[in-house]
Amino acid sequence: MSSPLFQPYDLGGLKLSNRIVIAPMCQYSASDGNATDWHLMHVGQMALSGAGLFVIEATAVEAEGRISAADLGLWNDANEAALRRVLEGVRAHSGMPIAIQLGHAGRKASVARPWEGGAQIAPTAGGWQTVAPSSIPHAAHENPPLALDADGLRRVRTAFAEAAKRAARLGLDAIEVHGAHGYLLHQFLSPLANTRDDAYGGALENRLRFPLEVFDAVREAFPHDRPVGMRISASDWVDGGWDIEQSVVLAQALKARGASFIHVSSGGVSTAQQIPLTPGYQVPFAERIRAETGLPTIAVGLITEPEHAESILAAGRADLIGLARAMLYDPRWPWHAAAKLGAQIKVAPQYLRCAPREVARLFG
After folding, report:
1. Measured between alpha carbons, how far is 289 from 149 in angstroms, rounded to an integer?
2. Cα 293 to chain centroid, rounded
3. pLDDT, tens digit (0-9, with 9 covering 90-100), for 132-169
4. Model pLDDT for residues 189-222, shown as the tens digit of each residue
């Protein structure tokens, strides 16, 4: 029987050669939102990895929505042109489908790069004023964000839609709306970050409203024959916060609006989170959402071994497996997984002669 991990998959009309998804990974290497030579090298090596789909890192829809000043963006013509250069270079040598994650950092914006400490940079120290559902900082010592008013909500919705149009012009194959990891859309979902008393806060229906409006705007702006999904944090890992029950309701609403997939992560909205970091610790969330909604589901989180990934799919707990840090550590992870699982994988012809003798049929 063929390996489940290496069976093809139809993701909302997008044909994937296998079930391995390279999850978005911030590179903190852009210049004014523009992709650089680093992105050409990074995307290039990921696109030659043999995975079924590559998702470009969290890409800000407006300058204020960047996590750091070195984040990738897609809010102006220069951003679009820089990313086009990268994509044209990569596509000349790889047919792998490429998606993009569009996001806004909200109150978690304006921070230093991780290798520079990662602390928030105040406006008075060269950062910028952040925005959020409510004027509650992520950490008590940080600069409080401004609560978005009606004009601000409209501006952010429009920015997501305009970035989706740019993604379409770039020929990107899919969009993942970033609703996870404590960034702006997750902030609206979580009662820990959203204490509004208008139509966007309070009851679950209200907290869902803005993320769903953004999804609708992106879905409307992107060609309907290309998939749009959302990445969510299924739990805040804090009592009284966002949880799996609310995540199921969100997933059902997304499915009704034409979402093609949901990418299930967790955490990020609160410094009080208590996460049990064990291999596959987020898979039960993906499994439940898949079971209760039927929405194509990507499971992610400390899945590093091919046999583990295979077992998740074989048990029907998810449809696709997301890998991030494992791909940075081993950009040939899909090759090595195929070799372990007795599968075959397509590679660039320049690499056909490199298969070890013991897996001589690896590349077909």
Report:
1. 32
2. 20
3. 999 999 999 999 999 999 999 999 999 999 999 999 99
4. 999 999 999 999 999 999 999 999 999 999 999 9
With H, G, I as helix, E, B as strand and everything else as coil, classify residue 228.
strand
Q: How big is the chain, counted in residues?
A: 364
What is 294-306 written as a DSSP string?
Answer: ---EEEESS---H
Whether 101 and 178 have beta carbons less than 8 Å apart is answered as yes
H helical segments located in 235-282: 244-256
CA distance 309 to 303: 6
The string of pLDDT tens digits covering residues 341-364 is 999 999 999 999 999 999 999 998
249 is written with which tokens?
């309701």
CA–CA separation, 210 and 203 (whole Å): 13
Give the pair of three-digit tokens for residue 35: 């992709």
Q: How far apart are CA 281 and CA 179, in angstroms?
A: 19
* CA 160 distance to own-chain centroid: 14
CA angle 285, 172, 168 (to 5 degrees): 110
Q: Which of 86, 82, 33 is nearest to 60 (CA)?
A: 33
Q: Which helix (H) or strand (E) holds 178?
A: strand 174-179
Integer Cα distance of 327 and 26 in angstroms: 13
Is the full-model pTM beyond 0.90?
yes
- Tell me which residues are annotated as active site: 183
HSE value, Cβ hemisphere, 13 Å, CA-based, for 348: 16
Using alpha carbons only, give the angle 178, 184, 187 rounded to the nearest 5 degrees.
110
One-letter identity of residue 79: N
